[in-house]
Design a protein that fits this description.
There is one protein chain. The protein is built from five helices and 14 strands. By secondary structure, the chain is an alpha+beta fold. The chain has two domains: about 45 residues; about 290 residues, Exo-inulinase, domain 1 (Jelly Rolls). It starts with a helix and ends with a helix. The relative contact order is 0.24.
Length: about 325
């Protein structure tokens, strides 16, 4: 009799395990339509006579010769375009910035935020190997914000991570982390997967070689000589990459194409809200409204998803279920 009770209980536990192990998508946006803008708050730094930057939902990025994003399943080429300091230079701010933030997301205790991103920029002189004409532009992803104010390098109220897609991020500044309004030092914080050397956050560090070197799409090269040449190894420019932030209940881990960039312990974070942001920053103090700059200098985002992560306790349930089956078999044999 007892063996039957244990067997039934263990089976019930095992039956629950597959459900617990199935991750669920709780938010998804392919930015395929201009109407998607209604689901976000958009913030830009001001210029002298109007906004310095802009966000375009439902932008057909094939106009820049960019192929469909890696996680696009239908071959479409519509996404979110963010342009920073392209309309005019920002004024009254440290840097130019544009950002969109979700408005109705409720994050679970553990999750993965994922999005495809393409960093495009206009080269200087005759080669994209040089920094863009309006300084260095960073591709930013944030989490834990209220979604009611601009999240960028000068001010944020969550976790903000940023990868510069040209080679002008400055010494040891290509891959940046901001915790609230704090900018941890890569050589002392211990967050970066590349270590704590003087190059741990710089594209010159061998750790970032996985990003390779890339050329601009043929359509851009045909339009302007500034788009010729190849990018330095170790930057994200002119290629699709999948950027993720994973909350596992202990740490926030930022990764690009499955390679960990930085891991920040929850104990080092104070999150003001539950919203997610996508943005672009110009670390230079001036922009350019030149036609080529408006055309080429842009971040393209696609396929934003937020997925739940199974709680670690599910593995304990699995072991408990296995143990229960073992005990039930032993008891059955004895009976």
């Amino acid at each position: 009799m007892n063996s039957k009770i244990i067997l039934l209980g263990s089976c019930a536990v095992v039956a629950l395990v597959p459900l617990a192990l199935n991750a669920q998508v709780i938010y998804s946006d392919g930015f395929s339509s201009s109407t998607d803008a209604a689901n976000y708050n958009t913030f830009v730094t001001p210029g002298a006579t109007g906004p310095s930057s802009d966000a375009t939902f439902g932008y057909d990025y094939s106009a820049l010769g960019i192929p469909a994003a890696p996680n696009t399943t239908d071959g479409s080429t519509f996404g979110l375009r963010l342009r920073v300091d392209n309309l005019q230079s920002s004024v009254g701010t440290v840097v130019g910035a544009v950002e969109v933030a979700t408005t109705g997301v409720s994050l679970p205790s553990q999750y993965v935020i994922s999005a495809d991103v393409w960093g495009n920029y206009i080269g200087s002189g005759t080669s994209i190997a040089s920094s863009g004409v309006n300084g260095s532009t960073g591709t930013a992803m944030g989490v834990g914000t209220t979604g009611t104010s601009l999240q960028y390098v000068a001010a944020n109220n969550g976790l903000l991570v940023e990868a510069f897609h040209d080679n002008g991020g400055g010494a040891n500044q290509e891959y940046r982390v901001y915790t609230g309004n704090t900018h941890p030092n890569p050589t002392t914080a211990g967050y970066w997967a590349a270590g704590t050397s003087s190059t741990s956050a710089s594209y010159t560090d061998p750790y970032y070689n996985f990003l390779g070197s890339h050329t601009a799409p043929a359509a851009q090269i045909a339009l302007s000589a500034t788009q010729g040449g190849s990018t330095p190894v170790g930057i994200i420019g002119f290629a699709w990459h999948t950027m993720t932030i994973t909350q596992d209940g202990v740490n926030m881990t930022w990764a690009i194409d499955g390679h960990t960039i930085a891991t920040v312990p929850d104990s080092a974070l104070t999150l003001a809200g539950s919203q997610v942001s996508l943005g672009a920053d110009d670390s230079g103090l001036s922009g350019s409204s030149a036609a080529n700059n408006q055309l080429f200098n842009a971040d393209i985002w696609d396929n934003l998803t937020i997925t739940t992560v199974p709680e670690p306790v599910t593995s304990s349930f699995l072991m408990l279920g296995a143990a229960g089956l073992f005990v039930s078999r032993r008891l059955t044999r004895k009976g």
